[in-house]
């Protein structure tokens, strides 16, 4: 077939035809260059270049220390264990909520309890597990168990499973919910037993969710820093804590960089696997062809009993752990002097006021800046075509995919000398949070845009509104629920995350989470509990305010489905 | 824009012109797909033109190129004589009515209709006035403060129409605007669009894949297939004189048979089809055939008359046996076996006439060879 040549006249440079898009792209690439590529390349440079020449010396040195090798294996074993146990627990919870006829309030309670670990600072379960199962632990005393040590693999495993299973629950329940209920009916009407239906229909169809959940949990556990720091001790070293101790304890930047490189490799593998999984499989089976929504078929009776039992035990246990923290924050000295006191809260509001203020300011700035960036990046990568689009997508997720420890170390190495000297500033803290956690925002914006017919924007253009007006008057109002959803997670992460920023705090800027860590290392459990409670209350309040604001904004129209659970990647 | 009915008797003004417009999509590994190939046509002021073709024929791409949503790979688009290739949709003033309405869900009916006026920064009292007038014309009074999700399908469609019409555009583009409506609403809305188009003297370009829609309202029909324009003309012309077998098949669902040329006269061709002989006007043939040629003959199912066996309706008749019958409301469709083949016949369902042939009964078929179309067999 004859192909007409490209006429030259129709080609206009982007800067002329769409100046808004052009300047947005320049701004995004520039910010990536400074806050994503510069630190990472600095990290690689420090790891692999000794006196300006390429060398494996740093890696070899780190590798030769037996302790570090143990840390690598420890990290991998722990991540595997947590991803399996967390996914299993998450699946059980998801089945309970989506596939049983448990009373509605009970299901709401199940959902609520799984939210708690997500919005708590990362130490919460470690602290309460220490209080319950540690030396002089309440539960140990009550059950009369002796010779049990929470410190080590078991403790970290339990604590991380508790912290991360909600992620598995959300990913899996999202997919269980979107499955067509008629498939259940079809299986049963074709003569399958309920067990068979579960085995041949429900579980196979939720495999993408299971896979995604395992990868998410593997990555989260691999990157987790707070739990092993408190519960690991010297008996069970893992990479993030080793890197932290090398840098803050021995000021060995090169060693820290090399260790974090060891951590970077498996994290990147997980990241690529996950992209592969989500990229190829169509994730939901919403066909739009189903008529009236039918109920999912009931599970086998014995399974329902087992699920109910497990969920009940877990819910009671989680509530118990949070109750311990609350109680612990009100007693003089935990398990020694149990008299009621406000002493710790007075301490928190007196000596912790700066940390509260700083944390709020940093979280607020990061949320606002991160959301704006997320909208811009989400919009141009979903709606526009340009050279380097896939690379932009990939780059935007990079800091998020890497363990916080790696990002933190990369930031101190990247920004501790001219031309960009940011060590100890507010900027470096905000940047670390923004470029790490806006990823959830981007995902929710992209997910929301995917559901919005481009014809709406085309209609606006064809009615004579310009690109910018279309963006502000049509696109933004339609994706605002997704933006808010992203904002909520961004804010929660900024309030509670520690793994990257632990390297970046200074005398001038400090965080609530680092205060909790300090209290823990000084064995001031009650203070740590009081800090945790204050933090949780702030997060709850802020989240409620944002939820209300969103409700008020969108009360007027039936908005497109809010971006769902999948976007929460912990 | 309410220009009254006065129309210039001399040559109508050309509002829209496409010159050799092509759109080629390059696929990284598999070369390229030609969505539109060298399409050229004009639309005059006040004209209602439909673009019809099977899905994937390039009609929507053509419309979107005109709307400014897609840049053509080659060729030029002129609006009122001005080259608009480099203008974005917002600079063209040719609003589009979308297939799924594309109403803004976060805006009320009023705000939806006012959207384009506000984008043009009209004073608010002028906006209010124009919107109110539109609501009146399109029977939307009372719905102004509602959201699109609270409207019926028909109302949503009318809001979409009002939103475009209120801008008093030079040209209005329709992208299969009725395909989401049920059959009854479709007919109603089609009439509504035609009425508005005439009242406001609007020039419209309308894309559809539905033959009834394409032929029903327009001044002119453009048939597309495989990215190319196949035929252009008024509906009657296209229906009665399809230029290619594709058009005959797509527009009238014609029966096709091999035709053997027995002799070629000055004005007629004598052909043999299924051992029957017909004399077809030479004008119905797309080329000058020679004796012994094999041609393709297209017979429109509605040009064949059925009668009980023995009744004579004309000369060109034969016997056949009813093999299938399908009741279609306005008409009855039969498949009739004659000779070694079958033929589809559409028989009007006239009220009161009890004639309905049952399967297996014998009938007499009467052909009208002046309506036959003859095509050269290609390839």
Shape category of chain A: globular
Question: What pair of chains forms the biggest interface?
Answer: A-B, 35 and 44 residues
In total, how many domains does the architecture of chain B comprise? 2
What's the count of strands of chain A?
A: 6
- Count of strand segments of chain B: 20
Q: Based on helices, strands and strand pairing, what is the structural class of chain A? A: mainly alpha
* CATH architectural category of the largest domain in chain B: 3-Layer(aba) Sandwich
Q: So how many helices of chain B?
A: 8
- What are the segments of chain B in which pLDDT stays under 50 over at least 5 consecutive residues? 1-8
- Our Rg estimate of chain A from Cα atoms comes to 25 Å
What oligomeric arrangement do these chains adopt? heterodimer
| Approximate strand percentage of chain A | under 5%
Largest sheet report of chain B: 6 strands, mixed
SSE order of chain A: HHEEHHHHHHHHHHHHHEEHHHHEEHHHHH
Query: Strand order across the biggest sheet of chain B?
Result: 6-7-8-3-9-10
